[in-house]
UniProtKB/TrEMBL annotation:
The keyword Plastid does not apply. The chain crosses the membrane at residues 56-79, 91-110, 122-144, 156-175, 195-217. It comes from the Bacteria. The keyword Cell membrane applies. The gene is ccmC. Its main location: membrane. Required for the export of heme to the periplasm for the biogenesis of c-type cytochromes. It comes from Peiella sedimenti. It is found in: Cell inner membrane; Membrane. InterPro entries: Cyt_c_assembly, Cyt_c_biogenesis_CcmC, Cyt_c_biogenesis_CcsA/CcmC. Keywords: Cell inner membrane, Cell membrane, Cytochrome c-type biogenesis, Membrane, Transmembrane, Transmembrane helix, Transport. This is Heme exporter protein C. Residues 20-179 form the Cytochrome c assembly protein domain.
Amino acid sequence: MFGLANPQRFMAFTRPLVPLLWAAAGVLLALGAWFSFTAPEDYQQGDTVRIMFVHVPAATLGLGAYAALGVSSFFALVFRHALADAAARAAALPGAAFTLLALITGSLWGKPMWGTWWVWDARLTSVFILFLFYLGYMALRAAIDDEARAARSAAVLGLVGLINLPIVRFSVDWWNTLHQRASLIRADGPSIDGAFLPALLTMMAAYGALFLALWITGIRTEVDRRRVVAARARAAAGA
């Protein structure tokens, strides 16, 4: 793993990996969509239950992407590692997209189930704050012209945002919320009906492969961009 911290080794290792991840994501998304549409209706939610197959993976990857951003920010800030900074930057946009998708699909599910599009309960509010951290991270990087200063400032914000992750995860256990408790990852096993598990697990695997494909592609693109910038700087200095 630490050998891949070298940008040249990372680029060589991930070159054949990226198309495999994109292919896996495409196949899993197609399979997950088929499972989702062929799953039975829920006895209470009816066809609305199918929103869960998009919402739950999106929310999970929104959290996972920020964890990747935060850990990468730590290595970038403490060890001043350029590849770690590239990894943090590459995780921001897909993580924000997954989190926004979770917020939208949660609202679409909440209206027929709860009778309202939105409530400021602990889970919904903490996920919205997570989305704001993503936006703040990207805005901070864009607002500072000096790339080194932008990286350090954004890394600090990325680390601060990690505090919100356990709040999102355990908010339904710590407070009384309208949002239901976890039904998939539980100490006593999943409480969700087995008829919905193939669709949900396949979609979660598909979203995971999609995030890895987006993330690694983003890191590779950032490495290439920095190489071009460095080459132009050397050429300007030589001129």
